[in-house]
Specification:
three-stranded antiparallel sheet, 48% helix
Length: 117
């Protein structure tokens, strides 16, 4: 089982309100790095928009990629703490971990960034 990145407890105000500490930035960068690949971003989007969970069989059929490639991307998302999964018989089901997504959304914030004068 991959080692999951630790959640940053009570983190963090929006970037436009306060700078991140070095430690928080290092932890959070792992999640953003996992999302920096278009396939992983799309996988996360498919899982999140399903409303509950998705079978790997449905995820694989949405791409023109091999099964091992999809598995690699899903493992990266799991290691970053963005999704979790459970094996049921021969299939694996994936769901989003809303805590980390909520934290990332909060960091990016909805506040406008001031324009330099």
């Amino acid at each position: 089982m991959p080692k999951e990145l630790p959640l940053v407890e009570n983190c963090c105000p929006p970037l436009s309100r306060a700078p991140l500490s070095q430690q928080d930035a290092t932890r959070i960068a792992g999640a953003f790095k996992a999302l920096s690949d278009p396939v992983r971003l799309r996988l996360l989007s498919l899982i999140a928009s399903s409303g509950n969970e998705m079978c790997v069989c449905d995820l694989s059929s949405a791409f023109e990629l091999s099964g091992p490639t999809i598995s690699h991307h899903l493992k990266t998302l799991r290691t970053a703490g963005l999704i979790d999964c459970e094996r049921r018989g021969t299939w694996v089901y994936y769901w989003v971990k809303p805590e980390l997504l909520g934290m990332l959304a909060g960091i990016l914030g909805a506040e406008p960034v001031p324009t330099p004068a």
